Amino acid sequence: MSARQQEAYNRTFTGWYINAAKKHSFIMFGLPFMTMLFGATYMLSFFTELRYEKYDAHVTAMTEEEALSVAKGRRKVNLNEEYYVCGNLPL
């Protein structure tokens, strides 16, 4: 490679990066590693969010029939009655 070609290559991003990596090894090894580490953490947060959203949708999904059956079996709450029920509990 002639001196002119080398000078043109050094002006490109690739040439600059290679020259900088020779002087500072962090650019060659540390920077890509840190970028991958933080990028992977960021991407995993999306997958985790999707997992919990799917689980919540599965748990909270209730048909109309189930909702009516749950509402039928309840008894009305009376404050006085609850007071006496709680008062009879052994300590």
Describe the structure.
This protein has 91 residues and is mainly alpha-helical. It has one domain (3-87). The protein is built from 5 helices and no strands. The radius of gyration is 33 Å and the shape is rod-shaped. The relative contact order is 0.04. The model has no long low-confidence stretch (mean pLDDT 83).
> Helical segment tally?
5
**Alpha-carbon distance between the termini?**
92 Å
Q: Count the strands?
A: 0
What is the CA-based Rg, rounded? 33 Å
**Average pLDDT metric:** 83
Q: What structural category do the secondary elements indicate?
A: mainly alpha
Shape: rod-shaped
Q: Percent of residues in helical segments?
A: over 70%
Please indicate the count of domains.
1
Instruction: Identify low-pLDDT runs.
Output: none
Portion in beta strands: under 5%
Series of H and E elements = HHHHH
**What about the largest sheet?**
none
What would a concise description of this structure say?
By secondary structure, this protein is mostly helical.
Write the layout of secondary structure elements.
Blueprint (H helix, E strand, L loop, with lengths): L2 H9 L1 H11 L1 H36 L3 H9 L6 H9 L4
Helix pairs in contact: 2-3
Keyword list:
91 residues; mainly alpha; 5 helices; 0% strand; rod-shaped
